[in-house]
Amino acid sequence: MRNFIALENMNAQELTTLIDLAETLSEVLERPIKKVPTLRGKAIANVFFEPSTRTRNSFELAAKYMSADVINFQASGSSVEKGETLWDTARNLTAMAIDAVVIRHQVAGVPGLLADLLNVPVINAGDGMHEHPTQGLLDLVTVKAHYGRIGGLQIAIVGDVLHSRVARSDLWGFTIMGATVRFVGPPNLLPSALGAPMTSNLEEGIRGCDVVQVLRLQNERQKSGAVPSMREYREKFGVTQERLGKWAPDALVMHPGPQNRGVEIDSEVLDGPQSAVLAQVRYGVAVRMAVLYRLLGGTHDI
Amino acid sequence: MTFSETSPSDNWHIKNVRIVDPYTHTDALGDIFIAGGCFVSEKLPEMLTLDATGLWAVPRMVDIHVHFREPGQEHKEDLVSGSRAAAAGGFSAVAAMPNTDPVIDNPALISWEGAHGREIGLIDLWPLGAVTKASAGKELAELALMEAAGAMGFSDDGKPIASGRIMRAALSYATMLKHPIVQHAEDLDLSEGTVMHEGQISHRLGLPGVPAAAEAAMVWRDVELSLLTQGRLHVAHVTALGSLEAVAYAKRLGGPVTAEATPHHLLLTDQAVSDWQASPITKVNPPLRPLELRDALRKAVVTGLVSVIASDHAPHHDDEKMSPYPQAPYGISGLETSIGAVFSSLLHTGLMDPLTLLERMTSGPHQALGAWYPGVVPGARADLTLIDPELLWVVEPRTFYSRGHNTPMAGMQLKGKAVATMLGGRWTMREGQVLA
Ligand SMILES: [Zn+2]
Questions:
Q1: Are residues A143 and A272 located together in one domain of the fold?
Q2: Which of B316, B319, B323 is the best mutation test for A, with the most CBs of A within 10 A?
Q3: Boundaries of domain holding B157
Q4: Which tens digit of pLDDT belongs to each residue from A205-232?
Q5: Both B53 and B151 in a single domain?
Q6: Alpha-carbon gap: A179 to the closest alpha carbon of chain B (Å)
Q7: Domain annotation covers residue A122
Q8: Which tens digits make up the pLDDT trace of B257-307?
Q9: What is the pTM of this model?
Q10: Separation of B67 CA from ligand 1 center, angstroms?
Q11: Is B156 a catalytic residue?
């Protein structure tokens, strides 16, 4: 593994290695002193072309717990608008003598192209509607921690799948690990031809599922005319305690965040016993530590 | 023999050549005689002899859809580099789109372009004029005056004529002209923000996709307007099933509608976007389509429903193609790969015979634009391309004469290549080398 760009082309063995490593590393997070010297002397650049405090913080914590130095390079979208090409970005990064690049970009494919231009590992922290592979991986770890396995489970992904990079990473990750994924959402927000069964009936979609991953409904979907109103969306696709109790009373409920409470998911569910959202956040740090460790070849013991 | 050893005044005897002449429906082994810039019927004294065994001689190959970027964007291409790319690719005539800066929308610019093309002298440069002023889609440009100044057709290519009212007016007005309205058909509302074909690959890559319906919907509208007005419509770069069906419908009703396909849509599929890892080198409008659409397009070219192959040669500067996918400009530099891509797609696959295939690059486009050329007959101007149909070669964009190196065919092996091009009895390219 040289870069971490997408789950789509990974195999079960590679994923299992990362999941196991993340589980081990999550124990480090339980220690009173979390810092380990594993990546001492390594410099990691966090390059975010899209604002995201959560993911950036998670990567930064992961790097710091492993004693790496972190440079936050808040490249606003405007540097692209000012005409900076990927070549320039790549050259500037190389000039900083860093050991790995974590990149979030609003355009699908940019981390992959950057990986071709750089001779240090590139980690995709989310690119357009393409993939968010560390999120996919942390969802795998969360499910594995709860069920003790992934193979054979039924995963329902509910919401705006079409525009979701999380849904894509989840689809590939869970499928590769032997689970079955289905998509649930308004027909115009479901991507055809990705190979997963799809339904626009919430009951049909989540009944009997082991995991319900609820996606955020962006406000802009209403503005762009894709959904008539938040009220109607909630009526058709909102995951409420009542519906969950009726159709999937034992399912683990996840959400990649940030959540629109009262729209796609109710607080009662989010803060309830079936919710794994805090575990997702915690495993997020462990997963990012695991990826950094694998790519930077840590020399010290964990 | 090299250029330095021949001169424009030389007369030629090209012997043992397979003459593939769609203008006269001839496909036969024979000799061609050229004197004083024209074909002649027999060998004259002091003719230089060229043994062309194994080669095909095709008269007046034309590409009716190229972007030469002059005036305004000469860093991408200009009339000189574009002319050289055309000669290198085997073409003796091209029609250049008017979406320059400023837009070629008046007779003075048409005259200027034609004169500059003749000065360069490597190809017959056919200017196309804009349909609407500044291609803004609001008011008709001076179509008749531009035609009188040498315009060979009219197009707002790069953008569609979105208004049905203006399109109707343009087609209606064109009934008193010799040359057609050429439409880039695309429903801009449906395609807004999209960068590739909407389908399995776009969903996988997470790139916003446009359905083929965005093209077909406008082709259907234009076909209806052409039938209504009887105005001549040429549909540029069709790729959608619905577009083909609309053109077939027009033809059934005897409407004056023609359509064209590009070599890249005939050769490649949207799989290329994935193979190139979403590099903008694959970004083109209309987008590369999936296999079933590509094969339907091939079939339409075979049957003649699509009677024109044209490259939509759209050169861009390397730096522009290094931007992220959405920001990168659309287009493929296509003049120098056209014959290779077309032969690889349609000839060496056994889908077409040489004469019918070359019709789509000679008499088909002439007819579509309302142009005329007699073919290899005594007295006709000697515009000729020698093609080695079996030549295997690898596309190396750095060696292009075009300033645009942007092509997803880079590194591909193609079969078939022009080895010499002649304009008015004078070689403009020999063995890949263009006359200065
Ligand atoms: Zn066009």
A1: yes
A2: B323
A3: 59-369
A4: 999 999 999 999 987 777 777 888 889 9
A5: no
A6: 19
A7: yes
A8: 999 999 999 999 999 999 998 888 999 999 999 999 999 999 999 999 999
A9: 0.89
A10: 10
A11: no
Same domain, B73 and B50: no
Say if the Cβ atoms of A108 and B199 lie within 8 Å. Answer: no
Which domain CATH number covers A170? Answer: 3.40.50.1370
Taking CB atoms and an 8 Å limit, are B325 and A107 in contact across chains?
yes
pLDDT score at B7: 72
> Residue B99 C-alpha to ligand 1 middle, in angstroms?
10
Encoded tokens for A295: 């790519």
Residue A52: Cβ within 10 Å count:
15
Q: Phi, psi at residue A285, to the nearest 5°? A: -65, -45
Report phi then psi at A224, rounded to 5: -80, 0
pLDDT in tens, A176-212: 999 999 999 999 999 988 989 999 999 999 999 999 9
Residues of B in contact with A127 (CB under 8 A): 206
Residues of A in contact with B207 (CB under 8 A): 108-109, 128-130
Report the CATH number that the domain containing residue B388 is assigned in CATH.
2.30.40.10
Which two tokens mark B100? 């320059």
Chain segment B69-128, per-residue pLDDT in tens: 999 899 899 999 999 999 999 999 999 999 999 999 999 999 999 999 999 999 999 999
Chain B: residue whose CA lies nearest to A79? B323
| B397 belongs to a structural domain | yes
- Looking at CA atoms only, how far is residue B324 from chain A in angstroms? 6
Residues with CB under 5 A from ligand 1 (ion): B 157, 184
- Chain A, 147 to 176: residues with Cβ < 8 Å from chain B are 162, 165, 168
Residue A125 in domain: yes
Prediction ipTM score = 0.81
For residue A301, pLDDT beyond 70: no
Rounded CA-CA distance B422/B415 in Å is 21
For residue A301, being part of any structural domain is answered with no
Q: B156, B312, B383, B388: which one is catalytic?
A: B312
Tokens of B99: 């979406």
> Domain containing B140 — which CATH number?
3.20.20.140
Collect all residues of chain A within an 8 Å Cβ-Cβ radius of residue B290. none
Same domain, B352 and B387: no
Q: If DSSP codes are grouped into helix, strand and coil, which group holds residue B103?
A: coil
Q: Would residue B1 count as lying in a domain? A: no
**Is residue B104 located within the same domain as residue B142?**
yes
pLDDT value of position B214: 97
Structure tokens that stand for A88 in this block: 């320039």
Nearest to A168 among B199, B206, B319 (CB): B206
Band of pLDDT at residue A237, cut at 50, 70 and 90: very high
Nearest C-alpha neighbor of A241 from the set A232, A233, A253, A230:
A253
Shared-domain flag, residues A37 and A123: yes
Structural domain of A271: 133-280
CA–CA gap between residue A234 and residue A261 (Å, rounded): 10
Amino acid at residue number A292: L
Please report the beta strands in B269-344, taking only residues with DSSP state E, as ranges in sequence order.
308-309
Distance (Å) from the alpha carbon of B274 to chain A's nearest alpha carbon: 10
Report d(CA B290, CA B288) in Å as an integer: 7
- Name the minimum distance, in Å, from the CA of A80 to any CA of chain B: 8
Residues B153 and B249 in one domain: yes
Q: What pLDDT, in 10s, does the model give residues A119-163?
A: 899 999 999 999 999 999 999 999 999 999 999 999 999 999 999
Residue whose token pair is 């309830």? A272
Tokens 């099933």, residue?
Answer: B241
On the question of pLDDT at A263 being above 80, the answer is yes
Residues A33 and A114 occupy one common structural domain: yes
pLDDT of A79 over the 60 cut: no
Which chain A residues are closer than 8 Å to B319 by Cβ? 85, 87
Looking at the structure of chain A, the number of domains it has is 2
Tell whether A172 and A244 lie within a shared domain. Answer: yes
Radius of gyration of chain A (CA): 19
Dihedral, CA of residue A246, residue A251, residue A256 and residue A257, to nearest 10: 40
